[in-house]
Specification:
245 residues; alpha/beta; 6-stranded mixed beta sheet
């Protein structure tokens, strides 16, 4: 996997039937290989932003460049290979009869078949600690197992930018720790959308806050989380009793 850069400028968006801007001239740049957490209250536009990054929502205003190339209709297939989005609910991504088929679905559409696909699926599942799940039915897995399989399904496409929407949702403390360790070993550029502030600190040297559809803070994660007044203004807070070290 070759990490790629991301440059978003003046991104604005409203849903059909509404004049309210969910995104309002949002701008953000990530260097190749950088890991950045996107923080913000409910309704701030985080998921809408994520869905723009591989064309799941049509661009209305502004521009998005992935590795220096514009996201437009002529390059949509390539952008979707380069930008892998892992949804908050893994059930939205798992639809085949076996884990093997789910993880192999994307590579099959890229023309990878036979032994090459089998090896790719097995190696990717092993990389996320889910090698023993290969012949299981996805919908019989636990929440943490489903999340690993969904991540494997995206990684099998060899994306250069990995976008994760609330990746710790439904995970217990050990599951969060294991996921943080796993993401630390992956090489693509990473954009992690999360309400889990300790997880952001564990995984991302840099964090931004989205509020009102735009970036209102961009700083070193530890520095940002130490600003309790800033967090309060945007309905964010560390868990009760948690102390920054």
């Amino acid at each position: 996997m070759t990490a790629v850069s991301l440059d978003v400028a003046d991104l604005s968006f409203h849903y059909p039937g509404s004049h309210h801007r969910v995104l309002d001239q949002l701008s953000l740049s990530l260097a190749s290989g950088e890991r950045v957490a996107v923080l913000g209250p409910n309704g701030s536009g985080k998921t809408t932003f994520a869905l723009h990054l591989n064309g799941l929502l049509e661009l209305q205003s502004g521009r998005i460049h992935v590795d220096g190339e514009p996201l437009d209709g002529s390059r949509l297939a390539e952008i979707r290979r380069q930008v892998g989005v892992v949804f908050q609910d893994p059930d939205d991504m798992l639809f085949m009869q076996t884990v093997r088929d789910d993880v192999g679905f994307g590579p099959a559409n890229l023309g990878v078949d036979g032994h090459d696909r089998e090896h790719l699926v097995a190696d990717t599942l092993t990389a996320v600690g889910a090698g023993d799940l290969i012949d299981r039915t996805p919908h019989h897995l636990s929440g943490g197992e489903k999340r690993r399989v969904a991540l494997a399904a995206v990684l099998a496409m060899s994306p250069g930018l990995l976008v994760l929407d609330e990746p710790t949702s439904g995970l217990d403390p050990s599951g969060r720790r294991e996921l943080a360790e796993l993401l630390g070993d992956l090489c693509p550029t990473q954009l992690i959308i999360t309400h889990d502030l300790p997880f952001a600190l564990a995984t991302c040297p840099r964090s931004v806050i989205i509020s009102g559809g735009r970036i209102v803070a961009d700083a070193d994660t530890r520095q940002l989380l130490a600003d309790t007044e800033l967090l309060y203004q945007h309905r964010l807070e560390l868990p009760f009793g948690y102390e920054l070290r």
